């Protein structure tokens, strides 16, 4: 794949962050520092963080940055999806069997 194709990609990654009780504020602060991160679920000892970026290396950079947050015990990359920006902007078409209820 050429460099131009990589520039057109959107990478969506989800992480489960295991942390000590009381570390949620530090985690939320670290997430707020990065516009490509979102704190999707904030729990007392586990949280879910989403990353959406055009940079295919951003996910691993964010893992390292989240691991450095005081009170964070582990960062698990749960899912990574890459797709062209054009494909993500296209409307979904459903067949009768796959249409949402």
Distance between the termini: 38 Å
Q: Based on CA inertia axes, which overall geometry fits?
A: globular
As a percent range, the share of helical residues equals 25-40%
- Describe the largest sheet: 4 strands, antiparallel
Radius of gyration: 16 Å
Domain unit count: 1
The run of helices and strands is HEHEEHEH
Q: Which strand order does the major sheet show?
A: 2-3-1-4
- Assign the CATH class: Alpha Beta
Give keywords.
101 residues, alpha+beta, Alpha-Beta Plaits, four-stranded antiparallel β-sheet, 4 helices, 4 strands, 37% strand, globular, disordered N terminus
Topology of helices and strands:
Layout: H1 3-7, E1 9-19, H2 24-32, E2 37-41, E3 46-53, H3 58-67, E4 72-84, H4 85-89
Antiparallel strand pairs: 1-3, 1-4, 2-3
